[in-house]
Amino acid sequence: MSGEPDGPQDRLRRFATIWSRAVFPVTSTSSTRTEFEAELLPLARRLSEMLRARSFDAEEARAVGAALVDAHCTDPEALSQTLDCVDAYLVLYCGEGGDPEDLRARSARLQHAMAAGFAGALRARTLAEQEAIAQAALKAQGVVAEALHASEARFRAVFEGAAIGIGIADLDGNILQVNRALMRMFGIADPALGGRRAMEWTHPDDAPQVWRLYQELVRGEREHYHVEKAFYRPDGTVLWTNLTVSLLRDADGTPQYQLALMEDTTERRLLNLRLRYEATHDALTGLPNRSFFFERLEKALNAGPGQRFGLCYLDLDGFKAVNDSLGHAAGDRLLVEVADRLQACATAPGEMVARLGGDEFVALTTGPDTRHEVDELAGRIMNALLAPVSVDGRELTVRGSIGIVEGSAGERSPAEVLRSADITMYRAKSAGGNRFELADPEADARVITRHGLTTALPAALERGEFFIEYQPLVHLGDGSVRGAEALVRWLHPQHGALGPDRFIPLAEHTGLIVPLGRWVLEQSVLQARLWRERYGEGGAAGPLRINVNLSPCQLTHPGLVQDTVEILERTGVAPDALCLEVTESALIGADDDLLKPLRRLAEMGVDIALDDFGTGYSNLANLRRLPVSVLKLDRSFTQSMQQFPADPVDLKIVEGIVALAHSLDLAVTVEGVETGAQAEQLRILGCDTAQGWYYARPGPPERLHELALVDATG
């Protein structure tokens, strides 16, 4: 029988129990452990809810961190134990039913936010304590001054009994007396501190104004000052204090002594430094994290005239395969090794390496001349990745793609620089990876424009920004218009009319090609019905047909046949009025499952045209098994025919293709006809129909009306 908790509440209580057991020994509280566990239970419930929430609430997570301080968990070890418990047990006991990777990522973000909230609350509490101490110090100052004038015995009681360190020196800085609290802070036994003078207590971290304020005080120009100051103890360790120094005057107002009040803040400072480190460094690799890197990058970009920067954005090639095949633990060890190698590459002044997340790293170099330095840095990084990494007895080959951005400070924001580096890195990855590329503003602009078009596509379809132009299909024998090819356009609000080459690949990538293709098909079939209503079904030229392009994504969509049938039935258009064009490359090596919907449409009477024929290097014997009735010959075969006489080799190729197509009972259409000589050569070779600028450019449906009217009237 399992000993694990049965329900969510049991699991939550179990997590709270583990948490309280880990933190209770280092918590200053008068509560029992059971009472302390009851205090942590609501916090555990809030963490559980944030772990499974739809959106991450950083403020709520910081509030939990702050609540730990309210529960007297102010020891640095309490925060460390808390973060360890959340990391090890929160997902285990409170993440049932969620995606493990998402939950772990959410848990990591919770830990960072909790640490930030803890630090903020502790700082606020510290400030409150400092204010109370300052008030006590001022009160003590008054009491001491009065005691000097009234009662040495009363002064001695206050002096020795104070919880803060107190020291008295003359105006020359000679230390006269110190109390036991100050002696404990310095770890000394000699009340006179060996006759030392105040001016000897310098420290490299002293702020510039510390000794300026001191000189003003001993000259009688100020009554007191308050600073944060470090001191060396006799054993060489550093004591950090909140130091208040006041001037003591005699009854006549003449300066006599200086009184120093010290609060030991060493542990609090170390905790703040630790929290700062955890908030600005990656937990896995120890490298600076994204937030720390952005601080450095912003500083580099605001360095002033004459300063430059160079940035290398690294993404490991094939890292996902390591995680998928060997597991995330192996992937983490690989990242740690890569981080160590990158750290060894950036040791010069002005250089740093950071981990942005996942397998993405950045290296930054700054200075007056980074043009060559950043290239050298990228080269060192590529060389550092050459040696295999041993993980679990396996030798893993590490490769990476790097995008480099270099420029003058003050020209771009950190977000713009990182975006350019990211774009450039993906350009290097698209070129095969294991290389670095330099940023190209024109390439960046194209990618940004492409991204903008991609995000605008769905709304564009809803807003009706697409329209269709039609290019006529002309019979080469008698010159009659037989139909038209539908060509979709996008009337973009900023970029104007865009051709399909600008957005069809984006629509295919996002899946929007299916609804867009359905819209084009429906609008084109409706136009075919209008043409047939206007010109009738008969005539020497026959009924006008509409050709509509199908993308590879539409071919694999299960609703292709049903959508086509519904559109034809709804519009009342016969199947023989429609011709669907499929590129040859989409059908190379196509199996029966892919061809099945095309065969069904062909059996209904819909013509299938093999578009761009001759560009896919397909086996001509495959034509026998494809359900096509039309070959659309690619324009590359007929370009030489724009001049007379044409290249005899091209003539033989086209003649052979036409003969083969006709022997298979296939019609031949030619694209890109631009001259009369070209049209005449194609007619002689036996091609059936053609389209191109020689007849008409793509345009509105009314233009086809005009061409058809001219054809009908002779």
Uncertain segments are 1-5
Mean pLDDT: 85
Number of separate strands: 21
Q: Strand-residue fraction?
A: 15-25%
Major sheet: 8 strands, mixed, barrel
Rg result: 40 Å
Q: Write down the overall geometry.
A: elongated
Main sheet strand line-up: 13-14-16-17-18-19-20-21
Query: What distance lies between the first and last C-alpha atoms, to the nearest angstrom?
Result: 93 Å
Class by SSE composition: alpha/beta
Q: Give the helix level as a range of percent.
A: 40-55%
- Continuous helix count: 24
Overview of the structural elements:
- It comes from Streptomyces violaceorubidus.
- This is Cyclic Di-GMP phosphodiesterase RmdA.
- Pfam families: EAL (PF00563), GGDEF (PF00990), PAS_4 (PF08448).
- Helices cover about 50% and strands about 20% of the residues.
- The chain contains 24 helices and 21 strands.
- Helix 5 runs antiparallel to helix 6 and helix 17 runs parallel beside helix 19.
- By secondary structure, the protein is an alpha/beta fold.
- The strands form four sheets. The protein has an eight-stranded mixed barrel with strand order 13-14-16-17-18-19-20-21, surrounded by five helices.
- The longest helix is centred in the first third of the chain and has 51 residues.
- The N and C termini lie far apart (about 95 Å).
